[in-house]
Amino acid sequence: MYAQINTDLMANDKKICVNLCVNPFQIRVQKLHRRRPVIVILIFFRNFKKPFFMLWRKFNGDPIQLPVKEAVEQAIKRETAAGYHLKVCIGTDSQVKGKETEFATVIVFLREGHGGFMFIHNEKTLHKYSIKERMLVEVAKSIEIAYELCDLFTYYDVDMEVHADINTNPHFKSNEALREAMGYILGMGFAFKAKPEAFASSSCANKVVN
Question: How high is the pLDDT of residue 141?
Fold first, then answer.
């Protein structure tokens, strides 16, 4: 899934419509029309072949049988009908385990003053990342889910934040990815939290991969 961001640029006194499909790590540029050239920038993952139906589960291990968007909508309806005011936080954490790197993405539902619950998705890869690359992949995975669900949150008036497991202290290696991650998340129009406030990634998702 790609986020669509449209903007206009001026190049050689000609207006160029730029269609930016956001999901980082590789770019391809094409001109689709001679008179009014359109640059299409496709940014996508090279290292992950996601299944069409991503497998999600609850914290107790029970599988979620529905597509995640339907499951989230049902949860919002159920909790709203019960009188709870919801906030959703989305985050991803990862852990290198031998030759594998495991990623966990969580959708955390907070009931104002009444605890909460979460949906969990795991995946593994043999690809080797630098720390900065791994941090940015974590952010990209969170944004992918946030983008898929954001229209639900708008429709049901649910606040949503994207949490990044990145340290704001420049003495930590993960801080190298902070500027890119902030620009990526804020550029999509999502609220952003980093450590120590990013509990969805640094606490909830962290428990899943450790």
Answer: 95
Considering only the C-alpha atoms of the chain, give the largest distance between any 2 of them, rounded to a whole number of Å.
Answer: 59
pLDDT digits (tens, 9 = 90+) for 157-204: 999 999 998 887 766 766 777 878 888 888 888 998 988 899 999 999
pTM of the model as a whole: 0.73
- 201 vs 210: CA distance, rounded Å: 12
| Whether residue 152 is found in the same domain as residue 108 | yes
Beta strands in the chain (DSSP E): 3-11, 14-22, 38-42, 56-58, 63-64, 86-97, 100-111, 116-125, 159-167, 191-195
- Among 66, 53, 76, 74, which Cα is nearest to 1's? 53
Please tell me the distance from the alpha carbon of residue 175 to that of residue 173, in angstroms, as a whole number: 5
Angstrom CA distances, 141 to 1, 13, 80, 106, 137, stand at: 11, 38, 27, 10, 6
Q: What is the span of the domain harbouring residue 38?
A: 3-42
Give how many domains the chain has, as a whole number.
2
Distance, CA of 180 to CA of 22 (rounded, Å): 13
111 with 179, same domain?
A: yes
One domain, residues 83 and 36:
no
